[in-house]
Amino acid sequence: MSNITIKKALITDAEQLTEIMKQTFDEEKKKWLSNHEGNIIDYNIQPPGYASIEMTKYMIRELKYFKILFKKVIVGGIIVTVSGRSYGRIDRIFIAPDYQGLGIGSRVINLIEEEFTNVGTWDLETSSRQTNNHFFYEKMGYKRCFESEEEYYYVKRKGINKNILSNQFEDCNMEKSEYYQVNLEASSYSNSNLMSSHINNCNLSYSRFQNLNFRNTLFADLNLSNSEMVFVTLGGVHFGDTNLGEGKLPILFERCELEGSKLINCNLRNVEIQESDVTGMKIDSIPVEELFKAYREVNKK
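Above: the chain sequence. Below: its structure as tokens.
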């Protein structure tokens, strides 16, 4: 087992790790979805952005991303999130198809637990279809806590968490609680139900919101200056009465899918659009392609 090691992934590893991830999850799709009729979407079998180098770079920068090495060759990766002092989540683990069945996965799970000895509770999700994963995680000490037609949720508790502090809360029902003038700086919330919460007049500067469901949520009267939004699903979102603040720092949209979007009654002075597909785009009902054509004809003269 000394031939199997993990090391923090580097940005320079992004292209290779993305290719291995794509091979792995494409193979899983063939194995578990090929016999199903229709175009079934299973995000545990094909995680969002699994074939995107930019997504891999983001995860290397912002999460705890380790490359898996077998005899010093990169054969996969494992991505984890550690919340607070005691809780960890395995976001993704993938091993190239040619290297599966060699005990690498089991060893990597143990190595991650050795890397984060303070974590007393680990959790993860896997597809309900991947029966081999169910056997594997249960063999590694994970207990199934929830299951649906689409996914299984597993938790592993490494004995009784004797290190839990007075300001740590686990498995509590705090529904409809109220907090007023409370100092929650540097707090962490994970695997919790915050649906229908109301957060008002609070300082959330330098906070991190990752892997969250904000569907049908209201964001109003916010200062988001210098914030970064990456890999965000914005279908049906409405931006209204929004400005750039006193500094007038411009917004940057990069590698965004904005097909069919509309900008109405907006100040677009000095806006630049570069290296983008503008097929069918219109400005005041005039096709941009016709504007380009007219511009080129004028410049020919």
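The helical segments are 14-33, 53-62, 104-115, 131-139, 288-300.
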